[in-house]
Amino acid sequence: MENMKHYICQKHERPLELFCRDDQVYVCVFCADGDHKTHNTVPLEEESTEKKTQLMKTQTYVQQMIQDRIKKVQDIKHSAEIRKKNTEREKAASVELFSDLMRSIERCQTELLEMLEEKQKAAEKQEEKLIQELQQEITELKMRNTELDHLLHTEDHLQLLQIDPSSCGPPHTRNCPEISMSPDVSVETLRRALTQLQETLDQKLSQSVMKMMQQHAVHVTLDPDTAHPKLILSDDEKQVRHGDMHRELPDNPERFDHSFCVLGKEGFSSGRFYFEVQVKGKTGWILGVIRESVNRKGQIIMSPRDGFWVVGLWNEDEYWTCTDSYVLLSLRVKPQKVGVFVDYEEGLVSFYDVESRSHIYSFTGLSFTEKLYPFFSPLPNNRGKNSAPLIISPGNCNE
Predict the structure, then answer these.
(1) Which pLDDT score is estimated for 280?
(2) Would you say 43 and 22 are in contact if contact means Cβ atoms under 8 Å apart?
(3) Are 238 and 376 in contact (CB under 8 A)?
């Protein structure tokens, strides 16, 4: 009976069979004909059905939120697993690198000490020989001194005058060599050893860095929708060269229409990625990464300010990059294959000579806010002198 009063109109003592949507209250038929006559009233069943429909929509939304968050948790866990594996791999690589470096230092130290010991033994042997020769001469000189002393004290003038004239002159002996500690020799030896060690360490460090970067190698293919109409792509979309014919292609927003450029299909907005490009046989090229929103129409400026992080070659031997202005790079050897490494979160873009395992240039302290795409320009073929293609190589890609 206590519960029944919630279903009875207190004013008319009639069942609450209707719902007033205007006042959001339950009413009876007399209320509907009276105070709520002009209001929007509906049967309880109809309002209940609509309410259930709203609840079902809300439940569906809540369930989707639950699934989204479950997936987010799974993604975070998966990302954490990958990060943990990468960290363990990098820790192992670091331990291997430093162990190798320490072995190199110990080996260099051992070789240097052995060389100094050999030099010391050689010097001691030479000094011992010299001492023996000098002691022999001292003995002979003492004997000569005794003979001279005897002649000086003789009273026999005839005997004195009959002696060999050579006995009156000084004895024939060689000049004694100067004894020197030669500290500069050891310093120079140490300098050479340290220089050689530095070269070894640089080489091993470069090898380790290249090995680490190649662990982040990705598959890159060229995007024909971005290619300038004079660029010719291979069927597998791994090679690009400049052609003389201007092909009739759709002038879509993604396509470069003035500069001879093409982008990779795959863009990256997080993590690390690495790819390699063969530049063998070319007299000019440009490689790197760009942000997605760069201007692709008309003449472009390939500077970081405009969203380009690139290095290039002009006139066969002029290597350059662009920071606030164009900067010429001094390279010891002519790269045949260039590696491009990007760490999105660290704001790093680095270029390496793959074969010599040497560093070319790095952009550091960057802040990326949009997707990055691999960038390629084979430059004009220059009457066949620069007709060789740019070739994207596997770069030890991880699936």
Answers:
(1) 93
(2) no
(3) no
The C-alpha atoms of residue 7 and residue 16 are separated, in whole angstroms, by 5
DSSP-assigned states of every residue in 16-82:
--EEETTTTEEE-HHHHHTTTTTS-EEEHHHHHHHHHHHHHHHHHHHHHHHHHHHHHHHHHHHHHHH
What gap in Å lies between CA 55 and CA 318, rounded to an integer? 70
pLDDT single digits (tens) 245-301: 888 888 899 999 889 999 999 999 988 899 999 999 999 999 999 999 999 988 888
Query: How far is 337 from 276, CA to CA, in rounded Å?
Result: 7
Q: How far apart are the first and last CA of the chain?
A: 71
Residue ranges, the chain, pLDDT below 70: 1-6, 159-160, 162, 164-187, 394-399
**What does the block give as tokens for 188?**
């120079």
Comparing CA positions, the residue from 250, 282, 399, 271 lying closest to residue 343 is 271
For residue 349, the surrounding DSSP H or E stretch is: strand 348-353
Residue 228: which residues within 8 A CB-CB, separation 6 or more? 255, 256, 257, 258, 259, 260, 261, 262
Please give the structure tokens belonging to residue 275. Answer: 């790819």
Written as six digits, the tokens of 344 are 């999105």
Alpha helices of the chain — where are they, by DSSP H? 29-33, 44-152, 157-161, 183-214
